[in-house]
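Researcher: Let's do a round of design. I'm pasting the structure tokens now; please hold your answer until I've finished.
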């Protein structure tokens, strides 16, 4: 297992994401909630969910950087890990959306699958581009020195705030993710974690204060602004310094990639099934979240038993199983 406090944070990020999709990203999705606490909380947490996933990706990469590893082999492994499940799981999701009337959003122009990113699978597509950036930075030693890293980070934040890139093949998402990934990488590489209570509490209260102010203002959610970036970075810094320990969150975090890829299949199924009988919000929320997480974990374990399926649908390295015949010598 990677660093004790990373796995629980992955579990927390999974729960935040699953709750987001169960409630719905907008009033015409999910549970069709247009106002109230759940709507406001779900919108405000947009400043933390994907930044946390990306921050953790950068942090984990820094624990296992490319080093002297071949750039081609490294990116090939990332393509297998990220792009292959995007093509399999993402395409399956898009086809189901296209053919089932009860889904919230129809996939338009199915022939443009993954050229225009599909639903939440934009993240893995964009993260691959981020890795391409990072490998370039590593090869030219742009992020191994603190001062050079700071320059690259500032450039990434300026791009985040000023460039409106096209959505095609995840370019827009990559520019959105890059500062958070670099921040996670930098916190780990330059040992910026702090055990000081003051630092932990200060980052917590700043993040809560800004989020609360945003909630009171009630403005439109724009995740690509300087304020959004600051909130995301501060929240991630607080959470990594929290040294969170939870066997429950760790149990989810161990399967975070599977939960990310497949939770929507189970949350949507639960919503459509329960919707036949009742529209109780509490029931929808609890069953939807449980079904999405538990179902994804069960599916992950099932897929992992097959070398072919685990490669195609989870991006794991293909390991051919060998049958060893034992001979008895009399």
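Researcher: That's everything. Go ahead.
Model: Designed sequence:
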């Amino acid at each position: 297992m990677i660093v004790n406090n990373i796995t629980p944070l992955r579990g927390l990020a999974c729960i935040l994401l699953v709750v987001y999709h169960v409630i719905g990203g907008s009033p015409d999705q999910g549970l069709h909630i247009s106002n109230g606490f759940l709507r406001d909380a779900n919108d405000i947490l947009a400043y933390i969910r994907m930044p946390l996933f990306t921050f953790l990706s950068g942090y984990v990469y820094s624990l296992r950087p490319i080093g002297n590893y071949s750039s081609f082999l490294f990116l090939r492994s990332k393509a297998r890990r990220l792009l292959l499940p995007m093509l399999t799981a993402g395409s399956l999701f898009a086809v189901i959306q296209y053919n089932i009337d009860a889904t919230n959003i129809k996939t338009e122009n199915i022939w443009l699958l993954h050229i225009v990113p599909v639903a939440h699978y934009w993240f893995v597509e964009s993260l691959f581009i981020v890795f391409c950036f990072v490998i370039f930075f590593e090869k030219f030693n742009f992020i191994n020195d603190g001062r050079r890293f700071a320059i690259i980070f500032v450039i990434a934040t300026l791009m985040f705030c000023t460039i409106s890139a096209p959505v095609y093949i995840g370019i827009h998402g990559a520019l959105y993710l890059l500062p958070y990934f670099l921040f996670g990488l930098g916190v780990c590489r330059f040992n910026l974690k702090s055990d000081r209570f003051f630092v932990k509490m200060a980052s917590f209260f700043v993040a809560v204060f800004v989020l609360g102010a945003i909630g009171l203002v009630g403005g439109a959610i724009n995740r690509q602004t300087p304020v959004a970036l600051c909130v995301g970075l501060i929240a991630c810094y607080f959470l990594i310094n929290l040294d969170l320990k939870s066997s429950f969150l760790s149990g989810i975090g161990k399967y975070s990639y599977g939960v990310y890829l497949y939770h929507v299949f189970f949350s949507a199924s639960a919503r459509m099934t329960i919707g036949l009988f009742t529209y109780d919000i509490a029931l929808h929320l609890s069953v939807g979240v449980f079904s999405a997480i538990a179902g994804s974990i069960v599916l992950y374990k099932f897929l992992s038993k097959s070398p072919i399926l685990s490669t195609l649908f989870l991006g794991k390295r293909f390991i051919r199983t060998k049958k060893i015949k034992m001979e008895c010598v009399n």
